Amino acid sequence: AQKVTQAQTEISVVEKEDVTLDCVYETRDTTYYLFWYKQPPSGELVFLIRRNSFDEQNEISGRYSWNFQKSTSSFNFTITASQVVDSAVYFCAPGTALIFGKGTTLSVSS
Amino acid sequence: EAEVAQSPRYKITEKSQAVAFWCDPISGHATLYWYRQILGQGPELLVQFQDESVVDDSQLPKDRFSAERLKGVDSTLKIQPAELGDSAMYLCASSGVGTVGGYTFGSGTRLTVV
Question: Which of A12, A65, A110, B72 pairs with A6 at a CA distance of 20 to 30 A?
Fold first, then answer.
């Protein structure tokens, strides 16, 4: 069985602040994928990143970066210089069939 | 850019009525998923198809929910009879061999049962 824990229910920051969203997962699979999705107020789920479990290199994409540590089963997501448009619910999801937690609601104010 | 199509976008129905949602995945995607998302929670997997076969429907309330994907392309999710607690967003997603990115989600159907 797979499980994900996003301990931060809500985070509020002011524009241009950096913010890190935590994700801890459980899986019995030896190889697996990890995903991050964004759900803005409009409701659609927007794919952000997919990471293979055997690739522990950190990844940076523009203002977004991800830190994957298999030893601690964590896959954290950092937004640098946050913007109001980053306001959304963010979901971390492990597995082949995506298993979602409750997500973290990020509010960025101007 | 290819999209997963869902209809209707919104649906209001009275409890005890039947309701159906439709999903057309990205062309060539063999795997199709239906999720239910209750307000304030993450999406919950209801059923997974591989082509026309059900791979996982362990979380599907089979006394009132049914799902089919007869030709391995588009899919229909049905609720009969609808209950107040079924009010939620119903999301469809698809993925295929060689999908570089993640699973692609449709815009969803927001169901309100009154």
Answer: A110
